[in-house]
Amino acid sequence: MKLVAQDEGVDPELILKGVAEGTIIVPANRNHKLVRYCGIGKGLRIKVNANIGTSPDYGDVDTELEKLRVAVEYKADTVMDLSIGGDLRAIRRAILKESPIPLGTVPIYQVGIEAIEKRGAIVGMTADDLFAVIEEHAEEGVDFMTVHCGVTLSSIARLKRQGRVTDIVSRGGAFLLGWMVHNEQENPLYEQYDRLLEIARKFDVTLSLGDGLRPGCLADATDRAQVEELLILGELVERAWEAGVQVMVEGPGHMPLDQITANVLLEKSLCKGAPFYVLGPLVTDIAAGYDHICGAIGGAIAAVAGADFICYVTPSEHLGLPDPDDVKEGVIAARIAGHAADIVKGVKGAREWDQRMSLARKNLDWEEQVRLSLDPSRARRVHSQHATSGEACSMCGDFCAMQLVASFLGTKPDTC
Which residues pair with 50 in a beta bridge? Predict the structure, then answer.
């Protein structure tokens, strides 16, 4: 907590108070030695998560370590291993060993895949299988885990009556729904929630209460099934706090612009201020190939409204598994969204960063502009790709507005 306070430039008491109240989390498993710690929640900078991981069609340890390297280079605050292909244990352990930032996982992916291998179907998994894998991840050092505790028999009943366009788009939510419907039993993560809390407390794992019923298209946004799950998660947040377990809540999903603020305020109310972790939200369904832009628009609005943690969206969302270039684009887009919100929220240092960039532009100080940019290598490359005759860039050359006005008025740029 002291390191987080130093990083944020805030009084340590702010972090201590936030963690005690549950409005701030610091994902840090006892068994994972981190280089960069991060605080997520009230009064802190918006944080960005980068999802990596294999599929049955693409990826191995080497590809995922390269994605991790890119995510860290472009300053993602956390990373999640969502692997569902190859040697899941070897991939996770390699990422854990190399990751200087908190790592998250979704244990039910491994449980479902192993159930297929051992028993022929996902529906063959048992509650003991599920909790054994959760404890395995925790013991290895995973810092936060997505657990879909709110996909219950009651929320599934709501889903059936709702009549959605895209039903469930959460892989973990789909695994659990299939198991529950086939076995006619309640979700073990909900029914045996105390068992989950015990594991989380033992290793200081942060629970990320997953949105298994998040909307997968605009038409399904803010429907009864989504809200039913959120109501359940609000109750589970309080039970986590009572057990001394750090917890955050995951949110949508696809959502029209005019519903985002209401959704954030609803989560903050029902979940008593617990940190809110949003995927996007994606504000249109037609941005295939450009969903990182779509997600950044929704993420900025959500963050201004009170969301604390943005899960990046890459250009390959809905189309295929992201490669390292997609990871870079996704991280930068989400960081733009988060920083834009930090400015509005008055987060310490945010507006000052922009002010320094403005002064560098006034000074035509290209090295400083490159240094201050989110992607220095790209900024340098774009600036230098066309030769110029003077100090200004190739957009205006000798007709640079700032140079002209300075010569007419005899003004000099301010300094920081």
Answer: 79
- Measure the N-to-C terminal CA separation of the chain; round to a whole number of Å: 31
Q: Which long-range contacts (CB under 8 A, 24 or more apart) does 382-386 make?
A: none
Residue 80 resides in a domain: yes
Same domain, 266 and 329: yes
Residues 386 and 308 in one domain: no
Q: Which CATH number covers residue 282?
A: 3.20.20.540
Q: Are residues 274 and 362 in the same domain?
A: no
Same domain, 289 and 402: no
Is there a single domain that holds both residue 260 and residue 396? no
Percent of the chain with pLDDT over 90: 91
- Does residue 169 lie in a domain region? yes
Does 327 lie in the same domain as 377?
no
Q: What is the pLDDT of residue 22?
A: 98
Phi, psi (degrees; rounded to nearest 5) at 172: -65, -40
**The domain boundary residue, chosen from 345, 361, 379:** 345
Confidence at 412, pLDDT banded by 50, 70, 90: low
Give the pLDDT score at 416. Answer: 43
pLDDT confidence of residue 397: 81
Number of structural domains found in the chain: 2
Mean pLDDT of 108-116: 97
5 belongs to a structural domain: no
Task: Name the pLDDT band for 413 (thresholds 50, 70, 90).
Answer: low
C-beta separation of 81 from 104 below 8 A: yes
Domain of 64, in residue numbers: 13-345
pLDDT score at 389: 64
Provide CB contacts within 8 A for 285, sequence distance 6+: 217, 218, 254
Q: Is residue 1 part of a domain?
A: no
Supply the pTM of this predicted model.
0.95
pLDDT of residue 181: 96
